[in-house]
TrEMBL record:
Keywords: Ion transport, Membrane, Potassium, Potassium transport, Transmembrane, Transmembrane helix, Transport. The chain crosses the membrane at residues 60-81, 153-175, 195-211, 223-243, 255-277, 298-318, 350-370, 382-401, 407-425, 437-456. PANTHER family: OSMOTIC STRESS POTASSIUM TRANSPORTER, POTASSIUM TRANSPORTER 6. Its main location: membrane. The keyword Zinc-finger does not apply. GO terms for molecular function: potassium ion transmembrane transporter activity. Belongs to the HAK/KUP transporter (TC 2.A.72.3) family. Residues 23-218, 220-475 form the K+ potassium transporter integral membrane domain. This is Potassium transporter.
Length: 734
């Protein structure tokens, strides 16, 4: 069993109670790390300036009341009982909601979608009918599909939520660690703690990022409203329950929150309020905070525990940031970055070096620049509540389009939770000059990067689509393509899912020879979290069979792990061999065209997923060829050579029989694989065409080109041997 198959089986296996309880325990650190450290700074931020603690304790009890109802209504009622149900085949987060909407209404931003993608198991899971039952739902679906501006607005709304999550990845570690370290204020001399807190917090943050690769009461009036920005911090981390759903399960997260996290948080806030109400007159320098309520003898142990808890919670936020950036990149909304999988056993544990160091620099800048929890809290609060508002908006569409509920329920959901969140949003936004400008600035920068990259990628694909070569041109060349065909497999990478890319004509007219087997390879993402191994490949012929030209489309979900090159090459060749066999005997729909595609694509799985089909073995040892004998399986073997570089054998099932033409085609494929694989990569230089607006020239010629030059090459080209690579440049005028 390979890693991919094992990962998928782990995702779909039925959970036992032991597994659920284990996941619930593990979620305490990963999912609830940020939420559980909020008592460190909520009261301190609430009573920073806007309201003061009076002798009547009305402000303390009013703040406690707001905290209690906020924790009850938002994390418990909204997320645990409603939003968690809107999972995308077990995955959660902003892009999971967007993915659901893309599959129930044709609003997908990916240009290379196919009807065959809608036949994926996870694509149509939990869908009884693609059309909403209510008349309003049908009208809403039709409106979204008809107006491109609404589709773009939906994408931008999703990207805004995503950018705020990235901003939270900068602000939450700074706030959590600095709040934990602020306990030094009561444990060291007053004249020293100001010079200790910031350096200690920075050292902890540097260590945190360096280790990432290892895997109020209404009497208070206006001041009370402004202090809601501090109370808002009690629900930071609530979105993580939904975003990290893919690592756990609905039931485990619900058990952990309702049985342990929620009551513990309520008791923690009640305990702080009780202590502060009895000990609010100490001295002139008295300030409300978490460590004030900790007995003096226990402050150092509690300080250490708080720092460790802040580190764990911050690490979870950083990992979540990596995950959502990977999703954006997979769906063409973020420049290509290097993704390192830090665990071979735990699905989804990734590390992105470039993003990690950018987050660290920004986090240190926030810590050194602000130097207090008040402004950090204002910044973090605005990022958190913006993500929640985006989730509320997307959920209202999910209720109507995906759950097929009455529009009345969607309106009630938006009105009830939207009103609460809008109140907190306004209280956070009014602190714009006191720190809330930071998440807005960060989100604006990341949003510009995402939009420029997405726009440039879309225009590049449209150019490929409009300038693809006609199949008649290929047929006019004949089986030899008008040039010498030599042994080997030529992999031509393209973004097109149909037709022949224009760059292929450059190859044919400028190269003296070409490989005997040509494969147009398209590696694309689909709007589902995972694609089953048995549905990974779409394979078809381009032109007549004797041309030996194939199209192979490799489909990945936005949470899938891409295989390494050697394993991928084996799966690719094996999938083509299985396609040849299935085309001969008429199985898997090879002789029929269920997708009405011009290239007659057939769904083929990886080697491990079709154990009853063709299997392939490779070795570098010289072995004399004997007759197949009476074995139940017969082998197609290459002729004996003196010193072969690679020995390839296809093991074909004895039954059903395949025809002679298919046997010959398999023989040529095997010989080509033994000769080696050459990677033919097209380097495109995108330029705005003449007559374009100044804005388009700025975006394409400077913005997109800058991002393209300073980001990673496609993942399939990262470790391709240079001796087996042919690169051809081409200028695109879009």
């Amino acid at each position: 069993m390979d890693r991919e198959t094992g990962v998928y089986q782990n995702l779909v296996k039925k959970e036992s109670w032991r597994t659920v309880l284990t996941l619930a325990y593990q979620s305490l650190g990963v999912v609830y790390g940020d939420l559980s450290t909020s008592p460190l700074y909520v009261y301190k931020s609430t009573f920073a300036e806007d309201i003061k603690h009076s002798e009547t304790n009305e402000e303390i009890f009013g703040a406690l009341s707001f905290i209690f109802w906020t924790l009850t209504l938002v994390p418990l009622l909204k997320y645990v009982f409603i939003v968690l149900r809107a999972d995308d085949n077990g995955e959660g987060g902003t892009f999971a909601l967007y993915s659901l909407l893309c599959r129930h209404a044709r609003v997908n931003s990916l240009p290379n979608g196919q009807l065959a993608d809608e036949e994926l198991s996870e694509y149509k899971k939990d869908v009884s009918s693609l059309g909403p039952k209510s008349s309003f739902g049908s009208k809403l679906k039709s409106t979204l599909e008809s107006y491109r501006v609404l589709q773009r607005f939906l994408l931008v709304l999703t990207l805004i939520g995503t950018c705020m999550v990235i901003g939270d990845g900068v602000l939450t570690p700074a706030l959590s660690v600095f709040s934990a370290v602020s306990g030094l204020e009561l444990s060291t001399a007053k004249e020293h703690h100001k010079y200790v807190e910031v350096p200690v917090a920075c050292i902890i943050l540097i260590g945190l990022f360096a280790l990432q690769h290892y895997g109020t009461h209404r009497k208070t009036q206006k001041g009370g409203w402004m202090s809601l920005g501090g109370i808002l911090l009690c629900i930071t981390g609530s979105e993580a329950m939904f975003a990290d759903l893919g690592h756990f399960s609905q039931l485990s997260i619900k058990i952990a929150f309702t049985s342990l996290v929620y009551p513990s948080l309520i008791l923690a806030y009640m305990g702080q309020a009780a202590y502060l109400s009895q000990h609010h007159v100490l001295d002139n320098d008295y300030r409300i905070g978490f460590y004030v309520s900790v007995p003096e003898k226990l402050r150092w142990p509690v300080l250490v525990i708080a720092i460790l808890a802040a580190v764990v919670g911050s690490q979870a936020i950083i990992t979540g940031t990596f995950s959502i950036i990977k999703q954006c990149s997979a769906l063409g909304c973020f420049p290509r970055v290097k993704i390192v999988h830090t665990s071979s056993k735990i699905h989804g544990q990734i590390y992105i070096p470039e993003i990690n160091w950018i987050l660290m620099i920004l986090c240190l800048a926030v810590t050194i620049g602000f130097r207090d929890t008040k402004r950090m809290g204002n910044a973090s609060g605005l990022a958190v509540i913006t993500v929640m508002l985006v989730t509320t908006c997307l959920m209202s569409l999910v209720i109507v389009l995906c759950w097929q509920k009455s529009v009345f329920f969607a309106i009630c959901f938006v009105f009830f939770f939207g009103t609460i969140e809008a109140l907190y949003f306004s209280a956070s936004l009014i602190k714009f000059l006191e720190g809330a400008w930071v998440p807005i600035a960060l989100a604006f920068i990341f949003l510009i990067v995402m939009c420029v990259w997405h726009y440039g990628t879309l225009k590049k694909y449209e150019f490929d689509l409009q300038n693809k070569v006609s199949i008649n041109w290929l047929l006019s060349l004949g089986p030899s393509l008008g040039i010498v065909r030599v042994r080997g497999i030529g992999l031509i990478h393209t973004e097109l899912v149909s037709g022949i890319p224009a760059i292929f004509s450059h190859f044919v007219t400028n190269l003296p020879a070409f490989h005997q087997v040509l494969v147009f390879l398209c590696i694309k993402s689909v709007p589902v979290p995972h694609v089953r191994p048995e549905e990974r490949f779409l394979v078809g012929h381009i032109g007549p069979r004797q041309y030996r030209i194939y199209r192979c489309i490799v489909r990945y979900g936005y949470r899938d792990v891409h295989k390494d090159d050697m394993e991928f090459e084996k799966d690719l060749v094996c999938s083509i061999a299985e396609f040849i066999r299935s085309g001969s005997v008429g199985i898997n729909g090879a002789n029929e065209d269920p997708y009405k595609d011009d290239d007659k694509m057939t769904v083929v799985g990886t080697c491990s997923s079709h154990t009853e089909g063709i299997q392939m073995s490779e070795d570098d040892v010289i072995v004399n060829i004997d007759s197949p004998g009476t074995s139940e399986l017969r082998e197609i073997q290459s002729p004996t050579v003196i010193k072969p570089k690679k020995r390839v054998r296809f093991v074909v099932p004895e039954s059903p029989k395949i025809d002679r033409e298919a046997m010959k085609e398999l023989q040529e494929l095997m010989e080509a694989r033994e000769a080696g694989i050459a990677y033919i990569l097209g380097h495109s230089y995108v330029k705005a065409k003449q007559g374009s607006s100044a804005l388009k020239k700025l975006v394409i010629n400077y913005g997109y080109e800058f991002l393209r030059r300073n980001t990673r090459v496609p993942s399939y080209a990262l470790s391709v041997p240079h001796a087996s690579t042919l690169e051809v440049g081409m200028i695109y005028h879009v």
